[in-house]
Amino acid sequence: MTRGDKILYIVCGLLFAAMALLPLFGASGFLLRTITLALMYAVMALAWNFIGGYTGYSAFGNVAFFGIGATVTGVMMTKMRWDFAPAVLLGGVICSLLSFLIGPALLRLRGHYFAVATLGIANAAREIVAGWDDVTGGGIGLNLPLNTDKDFYTFIYYIFLALTILSAVITYFISRNKLGFGWLAIRENEEGAKALGIDATLYKTLAWVLACFIVGITGGIYAYYNTAISPEAIFNPLYSTTPILITLLGGTGTVVGPILGAMILLPLSTWLLFNFPGIQPALLGIIIILTIIFLPRGLYEYLSGRRKLTLAALLKNPRDNQA
Amino acid sequence: MSTKPLVLQTQGLTKTFGGLMALSNVNMTLHEGEILGVIGPNGAGKTTFINVVTALYPPSSGKIEFLGRDVSVSHPHRMGRIGLARTFQVVRPFRNLSVLENVAVGAMFGAGGAKRSASEAFGRAEQVLTRVGMKDKISADASRLTIPDLKRLELARALAMDPKVLLLDEVMAGLHTAEIDRAVELLKQIHADGISLLVVEHVMKAIKALSHRIMVLDFGKKIADDAPDVVLNDPNVIAAYLGQRYMQRQHEKAG
Questions:
Q1: What is the pTM (predicted TM-score) of this model?
Q2: A279 to chain B nearest CA, in Å?
């Protein structure tokens, strides 16, 4: 670990501490909700980072599991009168099981083929949920029990904060153990990795199932938070793409990248929406394009001091090093 | 040599790609402590042979035995874990990882990996890199290495796996004379540590310096398998691979 890494870990630690204290100092509801959303995306970015960042499989359909997690939670809480916690957990478990079943087949594909296949899974999941009227409420969706507790939004805020910290800690430990190095080796060269003794199918499936479990849980919490869920809303492709953009901005295959990415991109996006309402999507698009051209490995590389942020470094395409 | 036990053998090994017979009924033996050279013209099936033996491709028919076990149906990672390591002719480095991390992955997952933690694997990787003379490049990204260094990295990763048998696919291609001499020395040391070697190579100087026995493949068939001086004077081998000019030069050097 370099000195730059240590500083970044401390920055993240302080950020978490500040966020933990924020509600105690009477932060406005608007601020809390903005950060809640940023944290929700941070969790999904950390989840995508396992399969997309560390293992190098560009999953483009994680929204499938966001939607399934939300639907399972909704169905269990409305039709079966389950409590929030077990309903959310069941959503996560069902997402893991489904991803475990389709994973070994799906993960035989690579690159664009894998991305398109995951996109297909997301569309299929939306159609099934929208068509299954008796259980899921069809195209209209479900209304979850309304929680009228005055601290409800603070409660959700803390859940997402805890989930972010937990996901980051899991990432940290995995990245320093065999599982993490196995994932990186698969990302860099799968056949080389296999020849060195890495069971690529098992490792890829683990990354995928872990990612889908976390995304499923996040979807379930979102359902309770938002109360009303429709297939249109919970299978919104933005839930797939935003976590990817966040991770790319912060740094793929790193512990702090997804966290910093979320804390930069989402407030920025909200700020742009308020100040340039008409052209906010276009401005976001420009920022994303510039990031991908000039920072293909994300801000992490510069923030950790691995690369000096100079004009020359920005103009020299970092991809040049890769054959 | 042949009194030593067999570590790797194939019987009637055949591999077809559609109508193309890449390997045809190849019987190969490798004894403990042996260095077997494998030569043959381009497209003879040398790399395919390594790919089939390491389970990257399943054989169309025939049998592969490693350390007395039938491994005809296996997976590449399983072969790596039971002590069969290989290098790739077209190198497969982990470009965005450091040299040390590249080799540590070999130490984590190879035959010796089960008993090592990730941090112990880094210690082992450092040892191996010192051994192959790359200690000064430990923290460089693999993407910054030259081809000779990438070939050495490939070898270091395989060594870090603590294999019983090492299959080398043209590790000397692209090296200049002095580098070849150094590589031959290194392979001799590795062999002295008790690792049996199968060396696929076009560099005849290295093949002659290393091999206890040479097997020759041509169009997927084994056309010779004997002591180096016998094989290199075999008219079939001269016709298929070495060529008359090579023989003349050898005679001029000798005379």
A1: 0.92
A2: 37
